[in-house]
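2.7 Reproducibility. Because tokenized structures are sensitive to small changes in the input, we list the exact sequence used for Cysteine synthase, including any N-terminal residues retained from the expression construct. No trimming or masking was applied before prediction.
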Amino acid sequence: MNKTIEHCIGHTPLIQLKRLPGKTSNTVLAKLEGNNPAGSVKDRPAYSMIMRAQQRGVIRPGDTLIEATSGNTGIALAMTAAALGYHMILLMPDNQSVERQQVMTAYGAELILTPQEGGMELARDTAEQLYKTGRGFILDQFSNPDNPLAHYEGTGPEIWQDTAGKLTHFVSSMGTTGTIMGCARYFREKQQKVEVVGVQPQEGAKIPGIRKWPEAYLPKIYQPDLVDRILLVSQLEAEEMARRLAAEEGIFAGISSGGAMAAALKLSAQVKNAVIVSIVCDRGDRYLSTGVFPFSGA
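Resulting structure tokens (single pass, no recycling of outputs):
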């Protein structure tokens, strides 16, 4: 059977780091979610949320969908909406990278930028207002169980299979928390001893894709009992690790991926004989305008 673009989501590579872990008894692995067709781990929940809503008869092709995003979810939803025949309205703070804005509109999405001072909270509130005025159906990745379900059915099982069930530690940055929730639930059912480690930003850090939400905006899909511990990373650590992943491992990844890997390597320094998997949630090309990867040529 011929595939269409949405059938290319998932089954991403799991590769071993060769240099960054240093001399260690641990195996540190990176799940390359940038290999998804729209370039991030968010392809999985984007397809899950739209397709399952369609299967339930809540939406149908031609309808308008609404979502607040900091970037990757919006890109993934724009791609999926284009593939399945929906109109997509995306709300995003205006301080996100120009690459993200351009990719969303390239997929045909209508992009509404909100003032950066209001952060993602304002983008979420604005999306809710549009929904209440009847502009379209809001997917709401923050409370939609079809978000973590995509990782419970896809990302988690892939990691378990590719590590032959030898996984000991799972590390993921926390934003919407769909990835860590879905994977953690799956790993709990397979082996209680897998330690699930969430990554959040240190005070003052602004790392795209990694958030610590105010209590009023905490994602409803988040279950704190599924996370064994939380490691904090600074903006400097996240950006430096993104550069090192490219220069020392050949993995061109984004800033949140750098943050997650920085946490994974901190963890590796504390344990022995472990199999550690860190989510590399997107590619570095959508961060070029931020200056994280400086050009040193003439």
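Helices lie at 43-55, 72-84, 98-106, 119-132, 146-162, 178-190, 235-249, 255-268.
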